[in-house]
Each structure stands twice: as structure tokens, then as C-alpha cells.
Design brief:
homodimer; 252 residues; cytoplasm (chains A, B); Sepiapterin reductase (chains A, B); sepiapterin reductase (NADP+) activity (chains A, B); Biopterin_syn/organic_redct (chains A, B)
């Protein structure tokens, strides 16, 4: 019998939450791990998914990708939490038992031409270091698996006020490209989900310092041109199913 | 009277050292800051350059780009050392007074398909976080200036055993591209100096785990096809002089 196991980071809201429901809908018997910071959103998404996912299993994992440097309590850092999580999952021995990491968490950061210096290590650790560390751990335990790196147009195109975000997405794309070249049975997909109608977009409409960009996003919202995250998530899950690799945009 | 000031990171050996001598040779009256970890190489390069650069000034700055987390002694961390350094340099008020940051330092890291997890934050902090932090500090103090991000073919092309290095170079290119878009009077050049005959190449020939890549580099060395770092450095300094921007390879 075939099985499907999905680990989704940053799953409490936005695109991560949509991914969780998309997986549940396509694979009713699947096992889904929701990995997010402890929060009311995390609990709410877990409870709602559990109600919907009656033929499968849902696990809630509290994990904070900011806390690598929690030297006072090393057992609590995200590396150990993630290790514990994946060591509890049996290693699939055939390709009909699918296991997928949706490496989705990240922060857009400050939307200014000169981000504060203190935000540089914080944003880069969260967006790059933790993302890469998770993919290394996951690919090492599950050589026969798939990793989705949630990417962005910002991985390919520079935006003047998104420098740390663009750098992060660019690094993630390149890292996963290298990883797939060196791990022949691992599939990696860098999926750019489109400009979606999520909290992240509200944040951009409020805080973007580049006037032209702000107006463009406000116009997209007004004209209903933002992508529905549920639709984009279903496309992403489908791309994984057919074994698509490399950088793929929602609009491709 | 025109002036030229260069700050060169990772200047004790290899391409950084070549850059220092290339600047000295083209701009005999220039002021050159050598920024490296305290080491015998650093002292030797400083002494040799001082002997050659008799019409200009050479400063030796001890700085360790690994020590951002030196919380016991925050005055010693590289951010503060770099701030102190640039705050001692007058801000140019016209484009005939040129100031250039050669952001050159970095590590190739482990040359394996699965780098050790502990190396991820170390390599990424050194290659990305410190590089970006320096460029932000520099561009903020010197809006009318140039930054050279020492890049690589690895910024554009994935190499299976160089995943952290490729990700780092890709992030650096993208960050500097964004920075130049948001800072109209700042010029940024991401210069890929070619596969050079330096200590880094000896390290690759000894430690590369990908057999094909190792053989390719050994062959380049044997056939004398590795680039002379002094020649590549002179090309880089010339590209800055003519105001070239974007990603430029030695072979372009």
C-alpha cells in the first residue's frame, strides 16, 4: 500500500496553511506534520486540519526557526526539534511511499533600501541557514524523497527594497539546485507561488517604502489579480506528484 | 586633486592580496586598507605592500569576519571594527575622490555533497551575513562610492559539492544587484575572477570529493590554464575605474 507523508514548515498561516489543506485534500490518508512557532494560529490550523483530515494523521510540531542560538537550552533549538521529528518517521523503502518536505517558512523582513544592520543576521538565519539545515537533515535521513523550496520571483529578479529577501531566495534556489545534482534519488522543486492574497501581501501594502511597488501591489489587490493561495498550493502539490524539478513559477 | 581609497577584505593572501598590489600599481598615491584576520600572512602582506607603496598609505586592520557573535567582547566584533575603520575616512564629496570597497573575503568550505551541519551557520555567516553587513555600512557612510563583490562562476552555475559556496555567491550577487538599484550614486560590480592559481585552488585539488571536478582542476593546473590572480586583479581594478556594473567574469 502506498503512503504519503508531508512536513510543512511555516504552516500556521498563509501559503503554508494552504499547502497543508492541499495535501490533505489530495491525499486523504496522508500523515501531515505542521511545523510552526507556538501561536494561536498554529493551534487553530492544527485543530481545523484535524477536523478535515479524518482519514489521515496530523501532527503539531512547535518549532522556532529563530532559535538556533538558544545555547541556554540546546535541546529546544530547531535543529534538535527537527531531528527528533524526522527520526520518528520510518524511512520509505520504495517510491510508492512518498515523503515530502515543504520548506516554506521565511520572512520578508524590512521593506526598505537600507535594512537595519541588526536585521541582517536575523533575516538571513531564518531565511537561509535554517532552510538549508532542514534540507540537509531531511535529505540525509530520506535519500528517496522530495523537497519543495518555497521560492519567489524575488529569487530571480532584484527588487530594490527587498535586498535581504531576494538574496535569501536566490541562495535557497541555488542550494537546492546543487543538492539535487549531488543526490540522484532526491527531487527538489523551487516553487514560486505567485503574488498571493495573504497576510504577507497586506503587510507589503502597508509597509512597502518603494512607492511604485506599493501602488502596483495595491492595484493587484483592487483588481483581484492576487493569486488565491489555495489554488497555488494545489498546483505546487501537483507539481511534486509529477516529479517536477528546478525553479517553477505559478504562472509558468 | 583626485584621491583613491581602497578597502580590501581577505587581503592577506590569494586574490585579495593581488587586488591590493593592483590598486597600488594603478594608483601610487592611494590609501589602502588591508582588512584580514590577524595572521603572519596579514603582517607579511602589509609589510611588503608598504615597501612597494611608497607614495601612498597602507593601513593594516585586524578583523575577523567569524566573530559577530563575540558577545563577551562586543567591541571586538567585526561590525564595530569596520565601523571604526570607515568612520576614520573622510566622506568624498566629488566623484574625483574615489572610494572602493573590495568585498573579497569568504570561504569555499567543505567540498562534499553533504556538508556537516555545524558548518552551515559558520560558512553562511562568513560568506553572506558579514559581506552584506559590510556593504550596508559602507554604502550608508559613502553613498558616492563603488563596491566590488568578489563573485564566482558558482554564483550562476550549481556545482554539486559546493552547495554552500554556490548559495553564498548567488546571495551576494543578488544582494548587490538590489543595493545598486536602490542607491543611484553607488556602483556595484560582482566580479568573477576566474579559476585562479591560488591556495584556494590547491585546496580544491587536494580536497574536492567530486572526482570529475577534481580531475578538471588538476588538468587546468597541469596545462597552465589557471588564471594568474595578479592579472585578474588588474582587470578587476580597471573595471571599477571605467564604472562597470553587474556580474562580470574574467573571461567576458
Amino acid at each position: 500500500m502506498s503512503s504519503y507523508t508531508a512536513l510543512i514548515t511555516g504552516s500556521s498561516r498563509g501559503f503554508g496553511k494552504s499547502l497543508a489543506f492541499a495535501v490533505s485534500s489530495k491525499y486523504p490518508n496522508s500523515t501531515i506534520y505542521l511545523l510552526s512557532r507556538p501561536s494561536s494560529h498554529h493551534t487553530e490550523t492544527f485543530n481545523n486540519l484535524k477536523k478535515a483530515h479524518t482519514d489521515g494523521t496530523v501532527h503539531k510540531v512547535d518549532i522556532d526557526f529563530n532559535d538556533a542560538a538558544d545555547t541556554d537550552n540546546p535541546n529546544n533549538n530547531y535543529i534538535n526539534v527537527f531531528k527528533d521529528c524526522i527520526e520518528g518517521i520510518p524511512v520509505p523503502t520504495s517510491s510508492s511511499n512518498k515523503i515530502v518536505l515543504y520548506n516554506n517558512h521565511g520572512t520578508l523582513g524590512h521593506l526598505t533600501a537600507s535594512p537595519p544592520l541588526s536585521s541582517v543576521p536575523i533575516d538571513l538565519n531564518l531565511n537561509i541557514t535554517s532552510c538549508i539545515s532542514l534540507s540537509l537533515l531531511f535529505s540525509s535521513r530520506f535519500p528517496l524523497s522530495s523537497i519543495v523550496n518555497v521560492s519567489s520571483l524575488a529569487a530571480l529578479k532584484p527588487f530594490p527594497t527587498w535586498s535581504l529577501y531576494c538574496a535569501s531566495k536566490s541562495a535557497r534556489d541555488m542550494f537546492h539546485h546543487c543538492l539535487s545534482l549531488s543526490h540522484p534519488t532526491l527531487k527538489t522543486l523551487s516553487y514560486a507561488p505567485g503574488a498571493m492574497d495573504t497576510d504577507m501581501q497586506s503587510h507589503i501594502r502597508l509597509n512597502e517604502s518603494d512607492v511604485e511597488m506599493k501602488e502596483a501591489f495595491v492595484k493587484m489587490k483592487e483588481e483581484g489579480k492576487l493569486v488565491d493561495p489555495d489554488v497555488s498550493a494545489r498546483k505546487c502539490v501537483e507539481l511534486v506528484e509529477v516529479g517536477k524539478e528546478g525553479h517553477v513559477d505559478y504562472w509558468d
